[in-house]
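hey can u check if this looks right to u? its 388 residues, i copy pasted from the old doc so theres a chance i mangled smth
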Amino acid sequence: MDEAPPELTLSLLPRIADVAAADWDACAGGGNPFVSHAFLHALEESGSVGGRTGWLPQHAVLRDAAGRVLACAPMYVKLHSRGEYVFDAGWADALERAGGQYYPKLQVASPFSPVPGPRLLIREGCALPTAAMAAALEQAMTALRCSSVHVTFCEAQEAAALAEAGWLTRLGVQFHWQNAGYGCFDDFLGAMASRKRKQVRRERRDAALSGFVLKTLRGHEITPRYWDAFHRFYQDTTDRKWGRSAYLKPRFWPLLGEALGENVVLMVAEQDGEPVAGALNLLGQEALYGRNWGTLVEAPFLHFELCYYMAIDFAIEHGLRRVEAGAQGEHKIQRGYMPVPTWSAHRIAHRGLERGVAEYLAAERPAMEREIAGLAELSPFRKSCEAD
């Protein structure tokens, strides 16, 4: 006989501190730092979410009859669609033109982090089906009077399970570097076509000749002066690219460093003893996750060196399976970062909007599949039949 499902109670928590870190992390596992209690707490403690940010925590926690936490999800009431990287502004416009109200909505996500990973966090060894989590999120959507609930950058199996539960799923693309067992950076270059290999070598050489001192810092090595400098880099990037205030507050960086310790990796360029550019990464069990970059100087290929090549060096040295370099950027392909699919899932209460979005996604998916296939054809790697 199948075991009967446990009696479940759903709680919606306005602070991640309202659930014990040990209980949350027993569900999150240790593979992806962006859903860890420590990362989410640093966002809240720094004021990067909550308050007037439009990201209001309502973390979903499922407990059994004995009060044990069986599953959870990092969830936020959203009053806008900023900081998500899966774009739904057109959906909001459509509903509001029809006289409806799209905001508030619910977002199951790691804020400001377009990093694929688990979103429906189920304690290891617990037989709770994903459908139970889907039902809990729909219950939360109704209870909080939200228009919809969105699970962004989830794992493929989560998206598939949510699709079986009647949710809409959406396909996206990112660019990741895969470690094929390389012993050193030259081994990686050896897998590339000759012209591409020469290009990478030239870019690394030119970056080195710019006169910067390049460093890889971890955990305790990232002192307050580096965090102060990095926030300036981050602000410069947000100001230039988006022309608006930065999402992440100055206090977030040292809180993150304190919370995640040696799993924080900062690639930095110094000039005359002062940091002038940097790329922030978080270390997971299998991957190095590149997140934020900024610079106060202009120098040839410094961005590629700090964000892509030093990350590859680090991954090879530490035996990591991949480097995930964040959202967007077809230019990453020629640096060895190949296209991979990403997934999101969506439940919309308004049936008319749901039908319209379903039609849109049905047309978008084959176009995205063709795009991913076309991008893969741009691979810089030698094909098996090609001579070097």
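The mean pLDDT is 94.
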